[in-house]
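Blackboard transcription, Thursday session:
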Amino acid sequence: MKQLVRSQGLGAIIGVAVMLAAFTLIDFSGWWTIQTLANVTQFTAILAFVAIGQALVIMTREIDLSVGSVYGLAGVAFITLEPALGVPGSFLVAMAMAAFVGVLQGVAVVKGQLPSMIVTLGGLFAVRGVIYVWTGGAIHNFSADARLHPLTRLFGGELLGIEAAIFWLVFVAGLLSVVLWRMPFGNRLLATGGSRESAESRGVRTDRVKIWAFVLCSLLAGFAGILTLCNQPQTHVTLGENMELEAIAAAVIGGCLLSGGRGSILGAILGALIVVSFRYELIALGAPSSWYITFVGAVLIVAVIFNQKLARFLGHSV
Amino acid sequence: MTNNQPLIQVRNLDLYFGAFHALKNVSVDFHAGELVGLVGDNGAGKTTLIRVLCGIHTPTSGEVFFDGRKIVKFHPKLAIDQGIETIQQSVGLCDNLSIARNFYLGREPVKRFLGVPFLDFSRMRDMSTKVIRQFGLRDNVSADDEVERLSGGERQSVKIGRAVEFKNRVVIMDEPTNHLSVREREHVNELAVQLKEQGLLVIYITHDIFQVHKLADRIVIMENGEKVADAMTDSMSAEELEEVIRQGGRVIEKQEAV
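(Written on the board underneath:)
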């Protein structure tokens, strides 16, 4: 519990509780159905991967705006390379491409001493451009064989009626939580975000830590793209558009402070749940779909105010 | 003066920040088992010099030798690996981490499970608890508390305690008694002398020539990025040295010329 309070996830837990209570009151029969919950959790899992990566980067006091494009790139690569490389081959190449984008951006930020906002904004456009050029706007599909490949089933299938993405999320989030809170790398990552100079003076290679954070973020975004396409193997050029904003919103709703050093993996997941639930429920209630983004904006601002009050209440200086 | 090889030898060091000439042709030797007071006014280059020694700044030209070997790459990690512990003024602790996590930052003790390193929290807690009790932090401060909650003096105590705990070959203290109460200050000064007696090199940076004159074997005075005096404390009184600082070093140059 103490760990939870400290790790900033508390605000998101309260937020989820309030949201579920509200949806129950407004739309009990529509919300609590298997179909709704299955869809919401599936989309939450996908967004949560991207949000967790974003949270790691924000914890080092940087930001990664390119995740939506990286998500799209990995997905497109996975589908279009499959005929040539097979499912495992194209999976590895797609992940390697994501990692490469992460390394490139991380190195540019750290070695070039550039603001990550600008570098990754460049990444956002550049990678999206690559997707346009590569696909030529065409839609690609998996062959019937590829859809039945064990790896595709492993990433996109389901077990006991629960989507594979959710199992992967639990596994990866658990793993990263251990890395973040129980391993030296996590200590150094949090220190890098908390005070880069201090971490550096203690011998922490903050440049390497930041590059790793960018790589992890890109890998998670790429993995999310692949999970999506294993589930619905069809690409389109807008795959992952605006996802960076949803991911940042989810991470911030989940308690990540843009000032660095504080954040939570569980919070990022819950933040993703809030964002996705709002989207789903607003559509279900018949609101025009364009309203959804307005609501996300409002929730984001309320969440930031709430998280800040909560942090001050707990005695943090933010 | 000891005749053996200096532990740290700085030769003709120049450092520019852009057009700003921060260190001008500084040459100085530091020996093991010595407590050296590094004194000078604000902006004299004391802190810049030690930031070179602890690996934060890379000199523009000139050489630094550690234990007879020339330093080629400068990075805090390398300095720490060589055994140089530095207590810096404004940096060294991350507010968002607990005392225990800060204590071992960069060299966390680990318990390996299947080869995977996990933080050894019990060891981190025990050691940092020991140190915060030695330094008389408030009783309700625990090793799990975030540094954010500590006062300036408590932060300083944690930094000093950490450097002493990891004492290796060199301890550099930059204004160590800032923010400290009289009692804490005495404790720190005693520690500095103890470390020296254990054979470590202690470099003690301060404004206060009178305070360090009582402790140090030797005083190095800097002014405007230059070394202007380097004298054993038994050959020059604190008053004489203070006069050197007041004159901005010009007097000593004349004296050397005579």
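Lecturer's comment: Chain A has 14 helices and two strands.
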